[in-house]
Design goal:
Length: 226
């Protein structure tokens, strides 16, 4: 994609930032509630991965394989039907109105809005569309014979990987955006590498470690939940 926007970059984490919850974890609960997986074992493993994430120690390759396993035998049409049901049941109720307003404010200002998330593209791409963002950068997935194989394509969009994937995109643009005047909104200590790269890091309903970091650095702290 080539860009012509004259504004700055506005970057947004997705889960627990624009959403009042985590879409990856919600996916696991959705599979349970629709009897697509065994409840006890799936919830234990889903919660285990989520705890890893909150501690900044996620095995993202293992998590993606776990997340995709129930849909690996589905073709594109079947996946689309299932994700539409997930959006209606699990995602729409946790979309933050103030999150949509925040993105809209930047769009109206002429900024180029990117949702950048560790959540895999199968789950996150339809969510990003609801915010009318210009672009989503997510953890990409390998496809074999029109089916997911449970593996990540390229660099996971997680921790330092967010910086790497964003810089790879920036290198492809004719109009050069600069992180030196970009803003990034996030709730998570996992996003510290990118928060430290932008001109304006903003902690949004932050976890405890990010709150402490934001307070020590004098970063702005906001809430989108009240």
């Amino acid at each position: 994609m080539q860009t012509t926007n004259s504004g700055k970059l506005a970057l947004f984490d997705l889960d627990n930032t624009l959403l009042e919850g985590d879409s990856d974890h919600a996916w696991g609960e959705f599979l349970i509630s629709n009897s697509l997986v065994e409840e006890k074992a799936h919830r234990e493993k889903n919660d285990h991965f989520y705890d890893q994430y909150k501690q900044g120690e996620l095995d993202i390759h293992g998590y993606v394989a776990f997340t995709l396993q129930p849909v690996m035998q589905l073709d594109r049409t079947q996946r689309a039907q299932l994700i539409a049901k997930f959006m209606e049941q699990s995602v729409e109720p946790i979309i933050l109105d103030k999150g949509k307003e925040l993105v809209r404010t930047h769009l109206d200002a002429g900024d180029f809005c990117i949702i950048i998330t560790a959540t895999n593209e199968f789950i996150s791409t339809p969510i990003a569309k609801l915010f009318n963002a210009d672009l989503i950068i997510a953890t990409q997935l390998q496809i074999s014979n029109n089916m997911y194989n449970g593996k990540i394509f390229g660099t996971p969009c997680y921790q330092d990987g967010k910086v790497a994937k964003l810089n790879a995109w920036l290198d492809q643009q004719e109009t050069r955006f600069n992180l030196s005047d970009a803003v990034f909104y996030s709730d998570s200590i996992n996003d510290l590498p990118l928060l430290q790269e932008v001109a304006t890091p903003v902690a949004v309903d932050p976890d405890q470690r990010l709150r402490e970091k934001a307070e020590s650095e004098g970063w702005k702290i906001i809430t989108l939940r009240s």
